[in-house]
Amino acid sequence: MQTEQVQDTGAPLRSDQSHPVPSPSLRTTAFRVANMDCRNEEAAIRARLSQLPQVGSLSFDLPARRLVVEHELPDPRPLLQALTEIGMSTSLEAEGTVAGGDACGSACSAACGGSVVSLPSTHVFTVPDMDCRNEEAAIRARLEPLDGVNLLEFDLRAHRLSVVHTLPSAEPILQQLRALGMCAHLGNTTEVAPPSSPDADAACGPCGKPEPSLVSVPAASGNTTQFLITNMDCPTEEALIRKHLGKLDAIDRLDFDLMNRRLAVQHRLGDPAPVLDALREIGMQATVEREAGASPQGRATYLIEKMDCPTEEALLRKALEGLPGVAALQFDLMSRTLTVSHSLDDASPITAAIERLGMAPVLRASSRPAPAVTSEFGSGISKSQSLRMAAAGVLAIGAEVMAFSGMGESSLPVVGASLAAIALGGIETLKKGWIALRSRSLNMNLLMTVAVIGAALIGQWPEAAVVIWLFGIAEMIEALSLDRARNAIRKLMDLAPETALVKQPDGRWEEVKAETVPLSALVRVRPGERIALDGVVVSGASAVNQAPITGESMPVEKNPGDTVFAGTINERGTLEFEVRSRKGETTLDRIARSVQDAQGQRAPTQRFVDRFASVYTPVVFALAIAIAVIPPLFFGGGWFDWVYKALVMLVIACPCALVISTPVTVVSGLAAAARRGILVKGGLYLEQGRMLRSVALDKTGTLTHGRPSLTETVPVASMPREEVLRVAASLDALSEHPVATAIVNGYGDRPHATVQRFEALAGRGVKGDIDGQTYYIGNQRLATELGVATEPVRTLLEQFEAQAKTAVVLATAQQALAVLAVADTVRNSSKQAVAELKRLGVEPVMLTGDNSKTAQAVAAQVGITDARGELLPHDKLEAIEKLAAQGPVGMVGDGVNDAPALAKSSIGFAMGAAGTDTAIETADVALMQDDLRKLPEFIALSRRVGGILKANITFAIGTKAVFMVLAFTGHASLWLAILADMGASLVVVFNGLRLLGRSAPTDGRGAG
Questions:
Q1: Is residue 698 annotated as a catalytic residue, yes or no?
Q2: What is the pTM (predicted TM-score) of this model?
């Protein structure tokens, strides 16, 4: 059945319809693949690109992370898409064309009168805020989608970014950087000139004109080693490590993930031993977690059921570390996995060595992704440490009591108790202080060490003991609080069971480890059980609680053909499903992995706090020295009084509360959002959400369901409505038109009539015989041709058209029987979501490619006043630019036609992302459920996070300021100073953790 509406698919006309197709020329395209650094990635790329028939040879340069492809494609976009599909972070480096036959190369076409080729330019930007790979990833995500951007090169140590592009100016790049919160400014610019050497003529061939080429920007090279550092969890350790490793010439880049105690080091060393030695010199307990580099190392991952304690680990280490070709071992006792980095042709010697120990190793696929989250660290505080701190507290308070009872503060019992308390409760702090002094790094451990030693030197032994004990207690409580925030995402992973009931080849059902279940296996889930893996239902019916993935409060009905997700709960009925994602690749794993990556990104507030602390601490330290020395030397002040004031000032100078407040709050906010089915890609977007002033909404699939449905059935003759539906659905069941499908779906599962002599009427509709009568169903043109378009029929057709509905007429050759209307219906949640956005002060704007009449009709239904229709992708981009000029703007789109506008917006949202890999990977914020109400919920949560961040920073700085004054006037003791520092730290930490315990408000106006 056809209607008068014609949809432009946007497909280009075939060139052979107008002129002969020239023989394809062989093209050579070079790509920069940032995460291609070992043979496993090379194998995956070869396997994926071999599926494209136009691809010829592949050339890999793993040290430079460079791939050169010879192909016959008209442009490299299919190659980029294929590489992106397998998780490769790819950008276009350079492209040239090897002419074939009499064809002229692309560089020559402009010179010969063809289309003009823009000469690439290289702009160098200085970006002071860009100092780690998280910022690099955010910038890549912003700039690489821009048309005209060819290549990005980063120098993080120098805070420089080089962009090779064909844009008319650097302004669009600067705008994108500033939208990310980066204070960027333009450095030097180099125009790429055509070669001027005498040999240049040979580069072009027939035309004799030189071919422009891209500037060769040196690529980053070297190995990347990831370390697990169990005692690194705050910016103090990060600063110490940065300073110490920065002295090694072969270190190119450091990437910190404090929340998961990971450090990735890009280096040019033969092996990571010097890095390990440097870390251990400053007291860091580091081990190599993952090693990848330019060497052709393979990686084999084994599942070993019998490996679950350090005894087995020691046995395996002894057996494998001396094996030729084995480079590194990585143990995960919690999941019973062993990863072996090696340079062997195959892993059979490793497998045999493990089997000789009586263990049964299962070699998993080499392409298996990394674990979604790091293993649990527990509380990080041992029983012996707790006992030592308890004993130190008894001794420190005992020393104070003895001093108050009349014993001198320098008497032997008081000094002995104080020394014992310092040894038990403060030795770790003193060690860290000594390391900081050795490396000339001014941090809180050094300040506390100087304060304690100074107090002891002036005879204040009890205060020295109490100060260092309270500082240790504060550190313990902060560690526990950080663990709570850190483990919030890991709790998501506990939702997916470790085992699954799998059908065996002989028909038995057996409970096996979820990690061993292959793709396409059949899994059974009984009522009340959690689903272990993603899959598609093949038999059974049930309701599934999908709250962990989508945040939906109500269970969702599941029938054959529906998708189920790992971690969701089967509430009633038995389901059998076919596995579509293995353990580590499920939607739940991708969510956890994405949020864990987001935790490592420094939010704008955190960058401000770090910069403030880096200035504040040395200034206060210098002030304390001045207070201790100047009054006694120049104004006759007493040394004891002024040194004591200086020591109090040092304790107050500790920026602990300030630096710890932001990461705890941001991580808690990310975890709280994930619990609600909102996946936020980093603190940057979590903070920017509260500043949105407008949100651009696509119509189809966002405000509406995205598929047509039957809305009206109006008989205009004597035939009953049910009979009208039966006849219309029976005819349309033989048509593939979307309007026909909507009518068939509207009729439901009831039986259809038998249709004979069915015929499609091009551009008008269909006809067929039912029960001996010929029926027609089609558009107004068909009704007019039949002569049945009476005045009532035309009135109904015009009425439905005014409502943005597609109307068809059911008729015989003599009369019209009924008018049926089909439309893309508005989601029930859209009107409420729009109202909530307006209540939050965010203006919703509709941008759609549909006709203006349809846009206005849908806008009226949901309450949007600014609706713009008939927009092409570049029109949407222009609209976003105008909205962005008025303030930060978000956009909800499909990521394909809307890609330019999404890239231009401050925050790009993807809706209904639970089943789509690309939305989870590419969107700034992914709303896992098809519910637009999640958008105002995210903005409200962002405002609450912003309010808590402001409150924490204000409280921390305010507390410091008050006690500075008290210390200077002599009204603050060391006791009060450490209690104030400890109290401020605990207040800001617990204030941030409140986000984990409460739902986000729908009205965020009071959130600050």
A1: yes
A2: 0.55
